[in-house]
Automatic annotation (TrEMBL), chains A, B:
<keyword id="KW-0805">Transcription regulation</keyword>
<keyword id="KW-0238">DNA-binding</keyword>
<feature type="domain" description="HTH hxlR-type">
    <location>
        <begin position="9"/>
        <end position="107"/>
    </location>
</feature>
<dbReference type="Pfam" id="PF01638">
    <property type="entry name" value="HxlR"/>
</dbReference>
<keyword id="KW-0804">Transcription</keyword>
<protein>
    <submittedName>
        <fullName>Transcriptional regulator</fullName>
    </submittedName>
</protein>
<dbReference type="InterPro" id="IPR036388">
    <property type="entry name" value="WH-like_DNA-bd_sf"/>
</dbReference>
<dbReference type="InterPro" id="IPR036390">
    <property type="entry name" value="WH_DNA-bd_sf"/>
</dbReference>
<dbReference type="GO" id="GO:0003677">
    <property type="term" value="F:DNA binding"/>
</dbReference>
<dbReference type="InterPro" id="IPR002577">
    <property type="entry name" value="HTH_HxlR"/>
</dbReference>
Length: 120, 120
DNA sequence: CCGGATCCAAAGAGATACTG
DNA sequence: CAGTATCTCTTTGGATCCGG
């Protein structure tokens, strides 16, 4: 994020930090508390280790999360929202809430369609 | 969006709809009112027409925006947040606010570094 | 074993020219 | 003006290997 790029609206700065395919979902999981790599991976079965590592690195570089290494065998690494990351909490919460609402609306539509089919 | 995919957390449903490189920025601009294609393009100089068209199509398909075609020469097409899109407004607002805050914090750090250099 | 790195293929995005 | 087609380049995915 040292690229000193120009932003047309402030939202672009936000998306520069939390944009990308996986970042927001990772942050949503970390918003429930610190987690080690394998725990995040378990919550996100569809992400590859590679993308998970890359996503976590970028979030760390931008100061959104912290990374703590426990020198032990087997290794243990814990990720946690930083102060800056915690300031994203309202956004993360609303993204979750909106998703619940959207899925609800969609299932209503699907039930409605089923009803229509029964009537034809 | 007919893919009936499984979501591990509701946030994934949200990101399915407003994720991707450009969607949120387009929605932020539309949150200030309806706009025609060329107006959005002017506000987003870095997006290509191709990606703009594609982004608008996907948002329309998911019921987040509406597309109104005026049959005239030259053509005129106006995009607007749908009711579902308006329900995203709080998220869009907060993404903008957070960006402002983040840019502020970052410039503080940069000024701090300049100050340090003056002292060495 | 756990967390991460490397290499190669696939998918997504950028640039540009073109159509109604 | 709005949108398409094609080609190129970047980002993401998948398999495999490494260090502790």
């Amino acid at each position: 994020m040292s690229g000193e790029r120009h932003y047309n609206i402030p939202s672009e700065a936000t998306m520069d930090v939390i944009g990308g395919k996986w970042k927001i979902i990772v942050l949503c999981h970390l918003s429930y508390g610190p987690k080690r790599t394998s725990e995040i991976k378990k919550k996100m079965p569809d992400i590859t280790q590679k993308m998970l590592t890359q996503t976590l690195r970028e979030l760390e570089e931008d100061g959104i999360i912290t990374r703590t290494v426990f020198n032990q065998v087997p290794p243990k690494v814990v990720y946690e929202l930083s102060e800056m990351g915690v300031s994203l909490q309202p956004i993360l919460d609303q993204i979750c809430e909106w998703g619940e609402m959207y899925l609800n609306e969609k299932s209503k539509v699907i039930r409605g369609q089923a009803k229509e089919q029964l009537l034809t």
